[in-house]
Structures are given as structure tokens and as C-alpha cells.
Design goal:
164 residues; alpha+beta; seven-stranded mixed beta sheet; two-stranded antiparallel sheet; globular
């Protein structure tokens, strides 16, 4: 999909399938959305860049609520365009207990509509818009936050997951 044709997902749509690389305790491996079919929920969050203030705050909020997400039957997956090596350093630095997937060509961000034209200090560029999707056990999108404000976001996501 080109930069001019951003996908538009809606609640009730089937989540686009994907496979991306990630580092896990067992080393580098590929992770697919299909790996989580049957799980009560998958929280898929897109973030702009490893080890930046907003992205760190968001990742740490999901980390701090991980036990509650586990209790609710949800898996958390973070996606950015950063490399697997960058994700590894970020995850180690902040003890992140969930996979961070590398989407260097932003193909998955495109599929989910998270690859957007952005403006910062008068500069226009393309990048990942902070977005979160809750996907149910059948692969259906149940909730979308298209432009996330980090404060209390993880708590809001947890409430949706608990309600599934």
C-alpha cells in the first residue's frame, strides 16, 4: 500500500494477518498474529520509536499492568519500524516482558492504518502514528485508538480487554 492509500480499519473488521521478526528469550524468531488465535485478546500497539520519552512511558505502562493483562487473558505486542537489535536494547533497558516486533518497511503499520503523514516543528514526514488495536480470539478488531495519548492509555486498554 502506498503512502497515499492508508488502510482504514474499523471495529468489527478482521485484523490483517502479519508475520514480523522479534527477539524473545529463545532468540530471534518470527511472530504472526495467527500464533495468538484463540487467546481472549491481543493488544497490538504501534509506537514511533524505541527509547523515546512517550514510547518509553507507554511501554512501561503496559509492562506495569502485565500481570493484569495476563489475568484477563490478553497478549501484548508492540510494533515499530525500529530494528530487532534496537528493540532488544529497549526491552532490556526497561525490562519489557512482551515482544516488540520490527516492521522496518512499515508494511504492517500500513495494513493497520498506523503509517501516517506527520508534522513536527514544521517538518512533514511519514511515520508510525501511536495507535492501539484490541483483537479478539477470532481475529476481529474490537477497539481502536487511532491517535493515542499516553497518559492512562494502558489502563483504558485493560478495561476494554476485561470487558471482552
Amino acid at each position: 500500500m502506498s503512502e497515499n492509500e492508508a488502510a482504514q480499519l474499523s471495529v468489527g473488521d478482521a485484523a490483517p494477518e502479519f508475520t514480523l521478526s522479534a527477539l524473545t528469550r529463545d532468540g530471534e524468531k518470527t511472530i504472526s498474529l495467527a500464533d495468538y488465535k484463540g487467546k481472549k485478546a491481543v493488544v497490538l500497539y504501534f509506537y514511533p520509536k524505541d527509547d523515546t520519552p512517550g514510547c518509553t512511558k507507554e511501554a512501561c505502562a503496559f509492562r506495569d499492568l502485565r500481570a493484569q493483562f495476563d489475568e484477563a487473558g490478553a497478549e501484548i505486542l508492540g510494533i515499530s519500524a525500529d530494528s530487532v537489535d534496537s528493540h532488544d536494547k529497549f526491552a532490556a533497558k526497561f525490562t519489557l516482558p512482551f515482544p516488540l516486533l520490527s516492521d522496518p518497511d512499515h508494511a504492517v503499520a500500513d495494513k493497520f492504518g498506523a503509517w501516517k503523514e506527520k508534522t513536527n516543528y514544521g517538518r512533514t514526514y511519514w511515520g508510525i502514528q501511536r495507535s492501539t488495536f484490541v483483537i479478539d480470539k477470532t481475529g476481529i478488531v474490537r477497539k481502536i485508538w487511532a491517535s493515542v495519548k499516553v497518559d492512562e492509555h494502558a489502563e483504558k486498554v485493560l478495561e476494554i480487554v476485561k470487558g471482552l
